[in-house]
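Entry for the shared binder. Reason: the reviewer on the internal report wants the predicted structure included alongside the sequence.
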Amino acid sequence: ARLRMDGTARNTAETADAVRRFFPTAAGAKPVILAATDRYHAGRMAAALRDAGFVPIIALSDKYRGPEWSLADFMPQPSGLFLTARVLRSWAGLIWYWIRGEIALDDLVS
């Protein structure tokens, strides 16, 4: 196994292209790639890597708060707006990548 980091990519599609350059493969081969990212970016990263010809394994780098909850969790909070904005940005990114041809709809499923 080799560990490589790319510091030149400006977006997810460029990251997937850098991975393709780092690990050239034989025609038809689909190497497994481990990518660390947060849960809001995981879908787009996985789709971009699939489109680049890899089988992605996503390692979430952010913490997940377990199933504990309270009634206060159902009250509007500024953090809720922040999380909603992150999710919407992630969806918008997926749609934009699809429109630009950076990913195919098949890349969205594993």
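Summary line for the report: The beta strands are 32-37, 55-60.
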